[in-house]
Structures are given as structure tokens and as C-alpha cells.
């Protein structure tokens, strides 16, 4: 049986990136890990993950949640650095 940690290790995303997908899509973390794994391995999906993180960041900014905003900025930075095809044009 696979654990959540096993799924995280297999999906090429960090827990913070999975958390952002879960937050954006209103999904349990394990389902977000599965979705994220599918998206990160497709050319069309990786920009979608970037957009999800940006959307979450903007929502945190709008509600004045500085801590979550900072977390998401770091998550976005890491995602762009580790998935270079996600760099904006």
C-alpha cells in the first residue's frame, strides 16, 4: 500500500505545490497529488499548475494573509526553478 509520502515522492512536486493545487481545486491532498502528477508530466499541465499557484497567491494577498502569500511566493519560485518550461514568455 502506498502512503501519502510515497505519492509525494513519485509525483515530482513538493508538498507545498500539492497543497496549492489542493487549495485551488478544493481537493484532498492525496487527490491533488494525483492531479498534480498528471499535470506536471504534460506540456499543457505545467502552466496550469503555475496559474493555480498564482491564483492562490492573489487570493492570499487580497485577504491580507501575508504569511500564506509569502509561502506561495516561495512555492511559485521553487516551481518555476524546478520546472523551467513554466517560465513566463
Tags for this model:
single chain; 89 residues; mainly alpha
Describe the model:
Helix content is 73%, strand content 0%. The termini are far apart. The protein has 89 residues and is mainly α. The chain has one domain (4-86). It is built from 5 helices and no strands. The model has no long low-confidence stretch (mean pLDDT 91).
Number of domains: 1
First-last Cα distance: 41 Å
Shape verdict: globular
Order of helices and strands: HHHHH
Total count of helical runs of at least 4 residues: 5
Radius of gyration: 13 Å
Q: Which structural class do you get from the secondary structure elements?
A: mainly alpha
Mean pLDDT: 91
Helix content: over 70%
Largest sheet: none
The poorly predicted ranges are none
Q: Based on DSSP secondary structure assignment, what is the total number of beta strands?
A: 0
Question: Quick summary of this structure?
Answer:
This protein has 89 residues and is mainly α.
How are the secondary structure elements laid out?
Elements (H helix, E strand, L loop, with lengths): L3 H7 L4 H11 L3 H12 L4 H18 L3 H17 L7
Helix pairs in contact: 1-3, 2-3, 2-4, 3-4, 4-5
